[in-house]
Amino acid sequence: MIRTAHWLGYAGLIPFIGLTLGMSLHPLTTVAFTTYSAVILSFLGGIHWGVALSRPEWSTPSRLCLCMLPSLLGWLALLLPMPATLIVLIGSYLSWWLWDRTQLDQPDYRRLRMHLTAVAVLCHLVWLAT
């Protein structure tokens, strides 16, 4: 896997970690955290959308519809009250990670996703616990 992808993936954790560490510093921190989380969740669906469009055997209506699920779940989560927002986001990240493992077989990508998902979910759990 391209080294830049690793760096950018790990850099994408900075808002999760930074906003979690500063959760009590500003009233908009919660909105920033949950919105960023929903955006990243959408990005994960977009990865599968891109793969589906590049592989003819994956370009089925059902697979393309499934690729939209993270975006819709992220949007739905933002409409819910806390802590339901965090619970839906945690469940979505874990479910999509499990789906990734059954669909994309690149070991580097799997390892990267495991690390990124673990940190993102841990940050969500910290928010949920407070």
Give a verbal description of the structure.
The protein is mostly helical. It has one domain. The protein is built from 7 helices and no strands. It has helices at residues 3-11, 13-21, 29-54, 61-67, 69-79, 84-103, 107-129. α2 runs parallel beside α7 and α3 (29-54) packs antiparallel against α5. The mean pLDDT is 95.
DSSP strand count: 0
Beta strand %: under 5%
Low-confidence sequence ranges: none
Question: Radius of gyration, Cα only, in angstroms?
Answer: 15 Å
Shape: globular
Sequence of secondary-structure elements: HHHHHHH
Indicate the mean pLDDT: 95
Biggest beta-sheet profile: none
| Number of separate domains | 1
Helix content: over 70%
N-C termini distance: 37 Å
DSSP summary: helix tally: 7
Structural class: mainly alpha
InterPro entries: DUF3429 (IPR021836)
Transmembrane segments: 7-25, 31-51, 72-99, 111-129
Protein name: DUF3429 domain-containing protein
Organism: Marinobacterium weihaiense
Q: What is shown here, in short?
A:
The chain is an all-alpha fold and 130 residues long. It is built from seven helices and no strands. The longest helix has 26 residues, at 29-54.
Key terms for this structure?
0% strand, mainly alpha
Secondary structure elements and pairings:
Layout: H1 3-11, H2 13-21, H3 29-54, H4 61-67, H5 69-79, H6 84-103, H7 107-129
